[in-house]
Amino acid sequence: MNNTMLAAIAESAQAPLALRQVARPIPGKGQVLVKVHAAGVNPLDTKIAAGAAAHARQALPAILGLDLAGTVVAVGEAVTGFAPGDEVFGMAGGIGGAQGAMAEYIAVDARLIAAKPQALTQREAAALPLAFITAWEGLVDRANVRAGQRVLVHGGAGGVGQVAVQLAKARGAEVFATGSADSLDFIRSLGATAIDYRAQSVDSYLEQYTAGEGFDIVYDTVGGQTLDASFQAVKTYTGHVLSCLGWGEHRLAPLSFKSATYSGVFTLLPLLTGKGREHHGAILREAAALADAGQLRIRVDQQRYALQDVNEAFRQVAQGQGKTVIELLS
Asked: Name one Pfam family in it (predicted).
């Protein structure tokens, strides 16, 4: 193994990413070196590249990419549970000054990764970590989703939304999800009742599906006005609204008058602060178990991208074109 690798680097804001030969990382204490087979491209990656994601604390130039799947090739000091040859996946870099996954190799904190699900390809596994962790931290950690509850997921065909639907179903809830007309069949294929948010008002689907009482849990994966609609859609007293995009300014009165609760989800915190990283690894082990049990799948964009196609992949994601993955096949 030589001491350099190919990487896609965001050299300055709004400039095309450049392919460069850079030094291959060496795993430090608590880290493993992973040969990257696939790197997920998330909307956050495109925002960092555009210079529009200060909360990610990733100064440019930088190698981007939060999500990865690959094979362990070396293990640093004080690492247990992983060995060379292990197939792994995780959300392990690309923010907070850390190298991202859009490179041939990455040194990652072993606490942030888990064994890849056998039921998923490397490409599928690389599309999963950020979405699944975000769904789990909301539905399980904050809201304790369970059987007997009615759950509404806003944006049920999106990256987080499609996983949230499946997670809520796997834990026994009755699931409903909003989407545009062209996404409704996919939402139904996940086992949820699909709601066309353009064709039906909140009051209308509340009456149709909850007799006007509201949903036990509402997960907003869209933000903006959709969070306000979530306050409207939640059940009085016991209802719980979640949002992974609750960054705007909103009137809390509609929620307060229902005596309902709200939780924000900021999935990046363990990567930025170093606290709670073990929990991310544990969540990914839950994802692998669900996938291997046939209860979790991820729809990936049919278009295939190599590292050399990184700028086209970024354009697709910036336009909202599904879960996109870059494959490093060498």
From this structure: ADH_zinc_N_2
d(CA 263, CA 100): 28
The residue out of 240, 264, 288 marking a domain boundary is 264
Which of left, alpha, beta for 86 (phi over 0: left; psi -120 to 50: alpha)?
Answer: beta
| In-domain check, residue 87 | yes
Residue 272 to residue 62: CA distance in whole angstroms: 16
Q: Please check whether residue 92 is in contact with residue 101, taking contact to mean a CB–CB distance below 8 angstroms.
A: yes
Q: Is residue 270 situated within a structural domain? A: no
Q: What is the pLDDT of residue 1?
A: 63
| pLDDT at residue 321 greater than cutoff 70 | no
> Helix, strand, or coil here: 148?
coil
Q: Are both 240 and 161 inside the same structural domain?
A: yes
Q: State mean pLDDT over 155-183.
A: 97
Please, what's the b/e burial string for 237-264 (b: 16 or more CB within 10 A of its CB; e: otherwise)? eebbbbbbbbeeebeeebbeebebebee
pLDDT at 300: 93
Burial of 193 per CB tally in 10 Å (0-12, 13-18, 19+)? middle
Q: Give the per-residue pLDDT at 330.
A: 52
3-state DSSP of 164-185:
HHHHHHHCCCEEEEEECHHHHH
Which residues, 6 or more positions from 203, have their beta carbon under 8 angstroms from its beta carbon?
212, 232
**Distance of alpha carbon 301 from alpha carbon 232, whole angstroms:** 33
Same-domain pairing of 147 and 123: no
The strand pair at 240-243 and 261-264 is best described as parallel
Q: Is position 284 within any domain?
A: yes
| Cα(206)–Cα(40) distance, integer angstroms | 36
